[in-house]
Automatic annotation (TrEMBL):
A Pfam family reported for this protein in Swiss-Prot or TrEMBL: MTS
EC top class, as a word: transferase
Protein name according to UniProt: peptide chain release factor N(5)-glutamine methyltransferase
EC assignment: 2.1.1.297
Example of a GO biological process term: methylation
The Methyltransferase small domain, residue ranges: 78-174
InterPro entries linked to this entry: HemK-like, MeTrfrase_put, N5-glutamine_MTase, SAM-dependent_MTases_sf, Small_mtfrase_dom
Length: 258
């Protein structure tokens, strides 16, 4: 394959089943610094590695977010969660991004709101390292550990917006996910337990203690999980509201500390 041969790149990507081969070829050609690197990048993509892991970034809510190998790739539908959060808060808000992965949600919300106090947390060291780069512009702090255990105690009762992009795929359905996710993203970022809501229940159970009066917890879930998710929010003493975006096939549950 000759350097800058767009048609050759497209042909290889199409043969591997890449639906958006032309767009992906544009991104790979723009990212590669020479023919050897281009060939290696195309080979990695053809082997099934997510495009975002190949080029090292993902576009999310207008930002270029660094995404390292093995780190969960932020989905476009989750931009709806960020937009909803932005409509409920303002500059100066205390924001926590739990199960932060790359830190995309926190970074995007900070960019939308302006000056915020941003904290993010994840149990996976690779995600923490990646998130630290992505929230640096917002002067955010990233903590490593299991959910609230990772957060500094001084945040208790002060959080205005609690974003929790928890895994919500039922364990038995992880095997049905596209290979890109199943084989190249950390399972802890995908597997939500028997009914997909194990991690969510842990988040909701302790959310009230961390939220400020009037503070909100926001998380994404599937349409079929809404009744159980709303029940978990209510059981935690929060007032639940469900919002959807049909274009993005996104469902977000908001739990407010009244």
């Amino acid at each position: 394959m000759s350097w800058s041969d767009h048609s050759a790149v497209v042909t290889r990507l199409r043969a591997a089943g890449c639906v958006f081969a032309e767009d992906e070829a544009d991104l790979l050609l723009a990212a590669a610094e020479g023919p050897d690197q281009l060939d290696a990048m195309v080979a990695r993509r053809v082997s099934g590695l997510p495009l975002e892991h190949v080029v090292g970034w993902a576009e999310f809510a207008g930002l270029r977010v660094a995404v390292d190998s093995g780190v969960f790739v932020p989905r476009r539908r989750t931009e709806f969660l960020v937009r909803e959060a932005a409509s409920l808060a303002g500059p100066g808000a205390v924001v926590v991004d739990l199960c932060c992965g790359s830190g995309a949600l926190g970074a995007a919300l900070a960019a939308a709101l302006g000056e915020v106090e941003l904290h993010a947390a994840d149990i996976a060291p690779a995600a923490v390292a990646c998130a630290r780069r992505n929230v640096a512009a917002a002067r955010g702090h990233v903590h490593e550990g299991d959910l609230y255990e990772a957060l500094p105690g001084r945040l208790r009762g002060r959080v205005d917006v609690l974003l929790a992009n928890v895994p919500y795929v039922p364990t038995d359905e992880v095997a049905l996910l596209p290979a890109e996710a199943r084989e190249h993203e950390a399972r802890v970022a995908l597997d939500g337990g028997v009914d997909g809501l194990d991690v969510l229940r842990r988040v909701t159970a302790d959310a009230r203690a961390w939220l400020a009066p009037g503070g909100r917890l926001l998380f994404e879930t599937s349409e079929r999980q809404v009744p159980s998710a709303v029940e978990a929010v209510g059981a935690a003493g929060l007032v639940a509201k469900v919002v959807t975006d049909d274009e993005l096939y996104a469902t977000v549950v908001v739990g407010e500390r009244a």
